[in-house]
Amino acid sequence: MAECKKIKAALLGLGTVGGGVYKLVQRQKEEMVKKSGANLEITRILVHNMNKQREGVDASLLTDNWKEIVEDPEISIVIEVMGGIEPAKTMILEALCAGKNVVTANKDLVAVHGRELLDAAQENQVDFLFEAAVAGGIPIIRPLKQCLAANEIDEVIGIVNGTTNYILTKMFEDGMDFSEALAKATELGYAEADPTADVEGLDAGRKVAILASIVFHSRVVFDDVYTEGITKISAKDVAYAKEFGSVIKLLGVAHNREDGIEVAVYPMMLPKNHPLASVRDSFNAVFVHGDALDDAMFYGRGAGELPTASAVMGDVIDIIRDIQFSCTGRISCTCYKNTPVKSSDDVKNKFFVRMQVTNKPGVLARIASMFGEHKVSISKVIQKVITDGVAELVIVTEAVKEYHMQDALMHLREMDTTQEISSVIREY
Protein backbone atom coordinates (compact mmCIF):
# COMPACT_ATOMS: atom_id res chain seq x y z
CA MET A 1 0.00 0.00 0.00
CA ALA A 2 1.44 3.38 -1.02
CA GLU A 3 2.43 5.70 1.79
CA CYS A 4 -0.17 8.39 2.40
CA LYS A 5 0.77 11.94 1.45
CA LYS A 6 1.70 14.30 4.28
CA ILE A 7 0.40 17.90 4.17
CA LYS A 8 2.34 20.37 6.28
CA ALA A 9 0.70 23.42 7.87
CA ALA A 10 1.66 26.38 10.03
CA LEU A 11 -0.47 27.92 12.74
CA LEU A 12 -0.31 31.69 13.30
CA GLY A 13 -1.38 32.33 16.88
CA LEU A 14 -1.92 30.03 19.84
CA GLY A 15 -4.61 31.81 21.83
CA THR A 16 -8.10 30.47 22.46
CA VAL A 17 -8.88 29.50 18.86
CA GLY A 18 -5.30 28.52 18.00
CA GLY A 19 -5.23 26.21 21.00
CA GLY A 20 -8.54 24.70 19.88
CA VAL A 21 -7.20 24.08 16.37
CA TYR A 22 -4.08 22.37 17.76
CA LYS A 23 -6.27 20.14 19.96
CA LEU A 24 -8.54 19.18 17.06
CA VAL A 25 -5.57 18.32 14.84
CA GLN A 26 -4.24 15.96 17.53
CA ARG A 27 -7.71 14.52 18.16
CA GLN A 28 -8.33 13.88 14.45
CA LYS A 29 -4.93 12.38 13.59
CA GLU A 30 -6.27 8.88 12.98
CA GLU A 31 -9.36 10.09 11.11
CA MET A 32 -7.63 12.70 8.96
CA VAL A 33 -6.42 10.26 6.29
CA LYS A 34 -9.87 8.73 5.91
CA LYS A 35 -11.59 12.13 5.79
CA SER A 36 -9.19 14.00 3.54
CA GLY A 37 -6.89 11.46 1.83
CA ALA A 38 -3.72 12.76 3.50
CA ASN A 39 -2.01 13.21 6.83
CA LEU A 40 -1.95 16.72 8.30
CA GLU A 41 1.06 17.83 10.30
CA ILE A 42 1.49 21.21 11.99
CA THR A 43 5.19 21.87 11.66
CA ARG A 44 5.40 25.50 12.85
CA ILE A 45 3.40 27.65 15.30
CA LEU A 46 4.02 31.40 15.23
CA VAL A 47 3.79 32.97 18.71
CA HIS A 48 4.55 36.38 20.16
CA ASN A 49 6.17 35.18 23.38
CA MET A 50 8.51 32.20 23.06
CA ASN A 51 9.01 31.97 26.84
CA LYS A 52 5.36 31.42 27.75
CA GLN A 53 4.57 27.92 29.01
CA ARG A 54 2.02 26.14 26.79
CA GLU A 55 0.80 22.88 28.24
CA GLY A 56 0.23 20.06 25.78
CA VAL A 57 2.03 21.78 22.88
CA ASP A 58 5.33 20.55 21.46
CA ALA A 59 7.71 23.45 22.22
CA SER A 60 9.93 22.54 19.24
CA LEU A 61 7.15 23.73 16.90
CA LEU A 62 7.13 27.27 18.28
CA THR A 63 8.75 30.18 16.47
CA ASP A 64 8.59 33.95 16.53
CA ASN A 65 10.14 34.24 13.07
CA TRP A 66 7.55 34.58 10.27
CA LYS A 67 10.21 34.02 7.59
CA GLU A 68 10.69 30.44 8.82
CA ILE A 69 7.11 29.81 7.74
CA VAL A 70 6.62 31.84 4.59
CA GLU A 71 9.97 30.75 3.13
CA ASP A 72 9.47 27.05 3.90
CA PRO A 73 8.43 25.38 0.60
CA GLU A 74 7.08 22.32 2.43
CA ILE A 75 4.38 24.29 4.27
CA SER A 76 1.34 24.40 2.00
CA ILE A 77 -1.36 25.63 4.44
CA VAL A 78 -1.20 28.67 6.72
CA ILE A 79 -3.87 28.91 9.44
CA GLU A 80 -4.23 32.47 10.76
CA VAL A 81 -5.96 32.82 14.13
CA MET A 82 -4.12 35.87 15.54
CA GLY A 83 -6.88 38.38 14.84
CA GLY A 84 -6.52 42.10 14.10
CA ILE A 85 -5.62 43.79 10.83
CA GLU A 86 -1.83 43.90 11.07
CA PRO A 87 0.45 41.98 10.94
CA ALA A 88 -2.17 39.41 9.87
CA LYS A 89 -2.94 41.13 6.55
CA THR A 90 0.71 41.37 5.51
CA MET A 91 1.40 37.78 6.50
CA ILE A 92 -1.64 36.41 4.68
CA LEU A 93 -0.81 38.33 1.50
CA GLU A 94 2.81 37.10 1.65
CA ALA A 95 1.62 33.53 2.18
CA LEU A 96 -0.82 33.69 -0.74
CA CYS A 97 1.82 35.21 -3.01
CA ALA A 98 4.20 32.41 -1.96
CA GLY A 99 1.65 29.89 -3.24
CA LYS A 100 0.37 28.81 0.16
CA ASN A 101 -3.29 28.17 0.91
CA VAL A 102 -4.72 30.19 3.79
CA VAL A 103 -7.47 29.63 6.35
CA THR A 104 -8.45 32.54 8.61
CA ALA A 105 -10.94 33.22 11.38
CA ASN A 106 -10.28 36.96 11.11
CA LYS A 107 -13.62 38.77 10.60
CA ASP A 108 -12.05 42.24 11.02
CA LEU A 109 -9.65 41.58 8.16
CA VAL A 110 -12.12 39.90 5.78
CA ALA A 111 -14.78 42.59 6.36
CA VAL A 112 -12.38 45.37 5.35
CA HIS A 113 -9.79 43.81 3.01
CA GLY A 114 -11.59 40.72 1.72
CA ARG A 115 -11.42 41.74 -1.94
CA GLU A 116 -7.63 42.25 -1.87
CA LEU A 117 -7.05 38.90 -0.17
CA LEU A 118 -9.41 36.98 -2.46
CA ASP A 119 -7.84 38.61 -5.54
CA ALA A 120 -4.37 37.55 -4.34
CA ALA A 121 -5.62 33.99 -3.81
CA GLN A 122 -7.16 33.87 -7.28
CA GLU A 123 -4.02 35.27 -8.90
CA ASN A 124 -1.91 32.56 -7.25
CA GLN A 125 -4.51 29.79 -7.71
CA VAL A 126 -4.66 28.93 -4.02
CA ASP A 127 -7.49 28.63 -1.52
CA PHE A 128 -8.40 31.46 0.86
CA LEU A 129 -11.15 30.21 3.19
CA PHE A 130 -12.78 31.96 6.15
CA GLU A 131 -15.73 29.91 7.43
CA ALA A 132 -14.85 30.73 11.06
CA ALA A 133 -15.00 34.50 10.46
CA VAL A 134 -18.82 34.51 10.79
CA ALA A 135 -20.89 32.76 13.47
CA GLY A 136 -18.10 30.59 14.91
CA GLY A 137 -18.88 26.90 14.52
CA ILE A 138 -22.07 27.37 12.47
CA PRO A 139 -21.58 26.41 8.80
CA ILE A 140 -22.77 29.48 6.87
CA ILE A 141 -20.10 30.72 4.42
CA ARG A 142 -19.78 27.40 2.59
CA PRO A 143 -23.56 26.79 2.41
CA LEU A 144 -24.08 30.28 0.97
CA LYS A 145 -21.26 29.96 -1.57
CA GLN A 146 -21.95 26.36 -2.59
CA CYS A 147 -25.14 24.65 -1.37
CA LEU A 148 -27.37 27.67 -2.04
CA ALA A 149 -25.54 28.97 -5.12
CA ALA A 150 -28.60 28.41 -7.34
CA ASN A 151 -30.69 30.87 -5.29
CA GLU A 152 -31.32 34.55 -5.65
CA ILE A 153 -31.15 35.51 -1.97
CA ASP A 154 -32.89 38.75 -1.04
CA GLU A 155 -32.66 38.65 2.76
CA VAL A 156 -30.15 37.54 5.36
CA ILE A 157 -30.68 38.48 9.01
CA GLY A 158 -28.84 37.10 11.95
CA ILE A 159 -27.99 37.04 15.62
CA VAL A 160 -24.24 36.92 15.14
CA ASN A 161 -22.94 38.14 18.49
CA GLY A 162 -23.33 35.81 21.45
CA THR A 163 -22.46 38.40 24.10
CA THR A 164 -25.32 40.73 23.24
CA ASN A 165 -27.75 37.85 22.77
CA TYR A 166 -26.87 36.56 26.25
CA ILE A 167 -27.38 40.06 27.73
CA LEU A 168 -30.76 40.55 26.04
CA THR A 169 -31.87 37.04 27.06
CA LYS A 170 -31.09 37.80 30.71
CA MET A 171 -32.93 41.13 30.48
CA PHE A 172 -35.95 39.44 28.91
CA GLU A 173 -36.14 36.25 30.99
CA ASP A 174 -34.66 37.26 34.36
CA GLY A 175 -35.65 40.93 34.55
CA MET A 176 -32.04 42.16 34.74
CA ASP A 177 -31.17 45.67 33.62
CA PHE A 178 -28.42 46.16 31.01
CA SER A 179 -25.54 46.79 33.44
CA GLU A 180 -26.42 43.76 35.58
CA ALA A 181 -26.67 41.48 32.53
CA LEU A 182 -23.38 42.80 31.15
CA ALA A 183 -21.66 42.11 34.49
CA LYS A 184 -22.98 38.54 34.39
CA ALA A 185 -21.76 38.11 30.79
CA THR A 186 -18.31 39.36 31.82
CA GLU A 187 -18.21 37.02 34.82
CA LEU A 188 -18.98 34.02 32.57
CA GLY A 189 -16.35 35.05 30.00
CA TYR A 190 -18.85 35.94 27.25
CA ALA A 191 -17.89 39.63 27.35
CA GLU A 192 -14.39 41.06 27.01
CA ALA A 193 -12.95 43.46 29.59
CA ASP A 194 -13.75 46.17 27.01
CA PRO A 195 -17.11 45.06 25.59
CA THR A 196 -17.51 48.01 23.19
CA ALA A 197 -17.17 46.01 19.96
CA ASP A 198 -19.93 43.67 21.13
CA VAL A 199 -22.46 45.96 22.82
CA GLU A 200 -22.15 48.75 20.21
CA GLY A 201 -22.77 46.34 17.31
CA LEU A 202 -19.31 46.62 15.72
CA ASP A 203 -18.52 42.90 15.89
CA ALA A 204 -21.87 42.02 14.33
CA GLY A 205 -21.36 44.74 11.70
CA ARG A 206 -18.18 43.10 10.42
CA LYS A 207 -19.89 39.72 10.14
CA VAL A 208 -22.92 41.16 8.32
CA ALA A 209 -20.64 42.90 5.81
CA ILE A 210 -19.11 39.51 4.98
CA LEU A 211 -22.51 37.78 4.72
CA ALA A 212 -24.00 40.51 2.54
CA SER A 213 -21.01 40.36 0.16
CA ILE A 214 -21.47 36.62 -0.29
CA VAL A 215 -25.26 36.40 -0.59
CA PHE A 216 -25.68 39.42 -2.87
CA HIS A 217 -22.49 38.77 -4.96
CA SER A 218 -21.43 42.39 -4.51
CA ARG A 219 -18.75 43.86 -2.27
CA VAL A 220 -19.98 45.23 1.07
CA VAL A 221 -17.36 46.47 3.55
CA PHE A 222 -17.63 47.27 7.23
CA ASP A 223 -17.82 51.02 6.60
CA ASP A 224 -21.03 50.43 4.60
CA VAL A 225 -22.79 48.99 7.66
CA TYR A 226 -24.83 51.30 9.89
CA THR A 227 -24.30 50.08 13.48
CA GLU A 228 -26.27 50.74 16.63
CA GLY A 229 -25.81 48.85 19.90
CA ILE A 230 -27.92 47.72 22.85
CA THR A 231 -26.65 50.01 25.63
CA LYS A 232 -29.84 52.11 25.61
CA ILE A 233 -32.25 49.16 25.89
CA SER A 234 -34.06 49.35 29.23
CA ALA A 235 -36.23 47.09 31.37
CA LYS A 236 -39.24 49.20 30.33
CA ASP A 237 -38.53 48.53 26.65
CA VAL A 238 -38.35 44.80 27.40
CA ALA A 239 -41.69 44.99 29.24
CA TYR A 240 -43.36 46.67 26.25
CA ALA A 241 -41.85 44.08 23.89
CA LYS A 242 -43.42 41.32 26.01
CA GLU A 243 -46.77 43.14 25.94
CA PHE A 244 -46.56 43.32 22.13
CA GLY A 245 -45.74 39.60 21.83
CA SER A 246 -42.18 40.35 20.77
CA VAL A 247 -38.58 39.99 21.90
CA ILE A 248 -35.68 42.42 21.45
CA LYS A 249 -32.65 41.07 19.57
CA LEU A 250 -29.52 42.71 18.20
CA LEU A 251 -29.84 41.82 14.52
CA GLY A 252 -27.57 42.09 11.55
CA VAL A 253 -29.95 42.86 8.69
CA ALA A 254 -29.20 42.78 4.96
CA HIS A 255 -31.70 43.10 2.12
CA ASN A 256 -31.22 43.22 -1.63
CA ARG A 257 -33.79 45.74 -2.91
CA GLU A 258 -34.41 46.96 -6.44
CA ASP A 259 -32.60 50.22 -5.69
CA GLY A 260 -29.62 48.69 -3.84
CA ILE A 261 -28.34 46.78 -0.83
CA GLU A 262 -29.51 47.68 2.67
CA VAL A 263 -27.19 46.59 5.46
CA ALA A 264 -27.21 47.49 9.16
CA VAL A 265 -26.95 46.26 12.74
CA TYR A 266 -29.39 47.43 15.40
CA PRO A 267 -31.69 46.19 18.16
CA MET A 268 -35.10 45.24 16.79
CA MET A 269 -38.42 44.13 18.21
CA LEU A 270 -38.98 40.73 16.65
CA PRO A 271 -42.31 38.84 16.78
CA LYS A 272 -42.14 35.75 19.00
CA ASN A 273 -43.20 33.54 16.10
CA HIS A 274 -40.10 34.41 14.06
CA PRO A 275 -37.49 31.58 14.13
CA LEU A 276 -34.79 33.95 15.40
CA ALA A 277 -36.90 34.96 18.41
CA SER A 278 -36.25 31.58 20.10
CA VAL A 279 -32.43 31.88 19.88
CA ARG A 280 -31.34 32.28 23.51
CA ASP A 281 -28.25 32.95 25.60
CA SER A 282 -24.94 32.99 23.69
CA PHE A 283 -26.19 31.02 20.69
CA ASN A 284 -26.07 32.50 17.19
CA ALA A 285 -28.34 31.98 14.20
CA VAL A 286 -28.54 33.19 10.61
CA PHE A 287 -31.87 33.32 8.75
CA VAL A 288 -31.84 33.32 4.94
CA HIS A 289 -34.60 33.78 2.35
CA GLY A 290 -34.01 32.68 -1.24
CA ASP A 291 -36.24 32.43 -4.29
CA ALA A 292 -35.84 28.66 -4.62
CA LEU A 293 -35.02 27.76 -1.02
CA ASP A 294 -37.68 29.93 0.64
CA ASP A 295 -36.67 30.16 4.34
CA ALA A 296 -33.77 28.47 6.14
CA MET A 297 -32.03 29.05 9.47
CA PHE A 298 -28.53 28.04 10.57
CA TYR A 299 -28.19 27.75 14.35
CA GLY A 300 -25.45 26.88 16.83
CA ARG A 301 -22.48 28.05 18.87
CA GLY A 302 -21.20 31.33 17.50
CA ALA A 303 -17.91 31.45 19.37
CA GLY A 304 -15.64 29.52 21.71
CA GLU A 305 -12.44 27.54 21.47
CA LEU A 306 -13.66 24.30 19.87
CA PRO A 307 -16.74 25.54 17.96
CA THR A 308 -14.57 28.10 16.13
CA ALA A 309 -11.76 25.57 15.71
CA SER A 310 -14.35 23.22 14.16
CA ALA A 311 -15.02 25.77 11.41
CA VAL A 312 -11.29 26.40 10.88
CA MET A 313 -10.58 22.69 10.55
CA GLY A 314 -13.49 22.23 8.14
CA ASP A 315 -11.72 24.69 5.84
CA VAL A 316 -8.36 22.95 6.35
CA ILE A 317 -9.85 19.58 5.39
CA ASP A 318 -11.39 21.16 2.28
CA ILE A 319 -7.98 22.49 1.27
CA ILE A 320 -6.30 19.11 1.83
CA ARG A 321 -8.87 17.54 -0.50
CA ASP A 322 -8.25 20.26 -3.10
CA ILE A 323 -4.48 19.69 -2.88
CA GLN A 324 -5.04 15.95 -3.55
CA PHE A 325 -6.77 16.74 -6.84
CA SER A 326 -4.69 19.80 -7.79
CA CYS A 327 -7.73 22.08 -7.75
CA THR A 328 -6.89 24.73 -5.16
CA GLY A 329 -8.35 28.14 -5.96
CA ARG A 330 -11.48 26.64 -7.53
CA ILE A 331 -13.85 28.83 -5.41
CA SER A 332 -12.58 32.34 -4.90
CA CYS A 333 -14.32 35.71 -4.84
CA THR A 334 -18.01 35.47 -5.81
CA CYS A 335 -18.62 39.23 -5.92
CA TYR A 336 -19.23 39.52 -9.66
CA LYS A 337 -21.82 42.32 -9.34
CA ASN A 338 -21.44 45.99 -8.49
CA THR A 339 -24.70 46.72 -6.68
CA PRO A 340 -24.81 50.06 -4.83
CA VAL A 341 -25.16 50.06 -1.04
CA LYS A 342 -27.97 52.40 -0.01
CA SER A 343 -27.49 55.18 2.50
CA SER A 344 -28.97 54.19 5.86
CA ASP A 345 -31.13 57.34 5.62
CA ASP A 346 -33.07 55.83 2.71
CA VAL A 347 -33.90 52.53 4.43
CA LYS A 348 -37.50 52.00 5.56
CA ASN A 349 -38.30 50.66 9.04
CA LYS A 350 -41.15 50.55 11.52
CA PHE A 351 -40.33 52.25 14.83
CA PHE A 352 -41.23 51.91 18.50
CA VAL A 353 -40.88 55.31 20.23
CA ARG A 354 -41.19 55.70 24.01
CA MET A 355 -41.33 59.28 25.27
CA GLN A 356 -42.19 61.36 28.33
CA VAL A 357 -44.54 64.30 27.63
CA THR A 358 -46.44 66.93 29.58
CA ASN A 359 -49.83 65.52 30.50
CA LYS A 360 -52.28 68.14 29.25
CA PRO A 361 -54.97 68.39 26.55
CA GLY A 362 -53.84 68.72 22.94
CA VAL A 363 -50.34 67.25 23.38
CA LEU A 364 -51.09 64.01 21.56
CA ALA A 365 -52.71 65.92 18.69
CA ARG A 366 -49.61 68.12 18.34
CA ILE A 367 -47.34 65.06 18.32
CA ALA A 368 -49.50 63.32 15.70
CA SER A 369 -49.46 66.47 13.59
CA MET A 370 -45.65 66.72 13.87
CA PHE A 371 -45.27 63.09 12.72
CA GLY A 372 -47.68 63.73 9.85
CA GLU A 373 -45.68 66.74 8.66
CA HIS A 374 -42.64 64.46 8.36
CA LYS A 375 -44.49 61.68 6.47
CA VAL A 376 -44.58 59.36 9.49
CA SER A 377 -47.78 57.31 9.82
CA ILE A 378 -48.79 56.11 13.30
CA SER A 379 -50.15 52.57 13.72
CA LYS A 380 -50.48 52.41 17.52
CA VAL A 381 -50.50 54.76 20.53
CA ILE A 382 -50.35 53.67 24.19
CA GLN A 383 -50.48 55.98 27.20
CA LYS A 384 -50.21 54.28 30.58
CA VAL A 385 -48.14 55.93 33.23
CA ILE A 386 -48.93 59.37 34.56
CA THR A 387 -46.86 60.87 37.39
CA ASP A 388 -46.38 64.51 38.45
CA GLY A 389 -48.03 65.82 35.32
CA VAL A 390 -45.88 63.72 32.99
CA ALA A 391 -47.28 60.93 30.81
CA GLU A 392 -45.33 58.09 29.22
CA LEU A 393 -46.37 57.76 25.61
CA VAL A 394 -45.55 54.85 23.32
CA ILE A 395 -45.98 55.32 19.58
CA VAL A 396 -45.52 52.61 16.98
CA THR A 397 -45.16 53.78 13.38
CA GLU A 398 -45.74 52.27 9.99
CA ALA A 399 -42.65 51.70 7.80
CA VAL A 400 -40.99 55.04 7.16
CA LYS A 401 -37.69 56.19 5.68
CA GLU A 402 -35.04 56.69 8.33
CA TYR A 403 -34.39 60.32 7.44
CA HIS A 404 -38.09 61.22 7.78
CA MET A 405 -38.12 59.57 11.21
CA GLN A 406 -34.96 61.32 12.36
CA ASP A 407 -36.32 64.70 11.22
CA ALA A 408 -39.55 64.06 13.13
CA LEU A 409 -37.64 63.08 16.28
CA MET A 410 -35.47 66.19 16.06
CA HIS A 411 -38.56 68.43 15.96
CA LEU A 412 -40.28 66.44 18.71
CA ARG A 413 -37.32 67.04 21.00
CA GLU A 414 -37.68 70.79 20.38
CA MET A 415 -41.35 70.85 21.46
CA ASP A 416 -41.91 72.41 24.90
CA THR A 417 -44.21 69.53 25.89
CA THR A 418 -41.54 66.86 25.30
CA GLN A 419 -39.71 66.01 28.51
CA GLU A 420 -37.64 63.16 27.06
CA ILE A 421 -37.50 60.70 24.17
CA SER A 422 -36.55 57.61 26.16
CA SER A 423 -36.27 54.94 23.46
CA VAL A 424 -36.31 54.55 19.70
CA ILE A 425 -36.26 50.90 18.59
CA ARG A 426 -36.93 49.46 15.15
CA GLU A 427 -39.54 46.78 14.61
CA TYR A 428 -39.08 43.87 12.20
UniProtKB/TrEMBL annotation:
Record has NADP as a keyword:
yes
Q: Which domain of life is it from?
A: Bacteria
Give the pathway listed in the UniProt entry for this protein. Answer: Amino-acid biosynthesis; L-threonine biosynthesis; L-threonine from L-aspartate: step 3/5; Amino-acid biosynthesis; L-methionine biosynthesis via de novo pathway; L-homoserine from L-aspartate: step 3/3
Q: Which reaction does it catalyse?
A: L-homoserine + NADP(+) = L-aspartate 4-semialdehyde + NADPH + H(+)
Q: Which cofactor does the UniProt annotation name?
A: a metal cation
> Which SUPFAM superfamilies does the UniProt entry name for this protein?
ACT-like (SSF55021), Glyceraldehyde-3-phosphate dehydrogenase-like, C-terminal domain (SSF55347), NAD(P)-binding Rossmann-fold domains (SSF51735)
Q: What class of enzyme is it?
A: oxidoreductase
Q: Which InterPro entries match?
A: ACT-like_dom_sf, ACT_dom, Asp/hSer_DH_NAD-bd, HDH, HDH_cat, HDH_CS, NAD(P)-bd_dom_sf
Which EC number(s) does UniProt give?
1.1.1.3
Provide this UniProt record's keywords sorted from A to Z.
Amino-acid biosynthesis, Methionine biosynthesis, NADP, Oxidoreductase, Threonine biosynthesis
Location of the ACT domain? 352-426
Gene3D superfamilies, per database record: 3.30.70.260, Dihydrodipicolinate Reductase, domain 2, NAD(P)-binding Rossmann-like Domain
Q: Name one Pfam family in it.
A: ACT
Family listed: Belongs to the homoserine dehydrogenase family.
This chain's protein is named: Homoserine dehydrogenase
Organism source for this protein? Answer: Dorea hominis
Lineage, opening ranks:
Bacteria, Bacillati, Bacillota, Clostridia, Lachnospirales
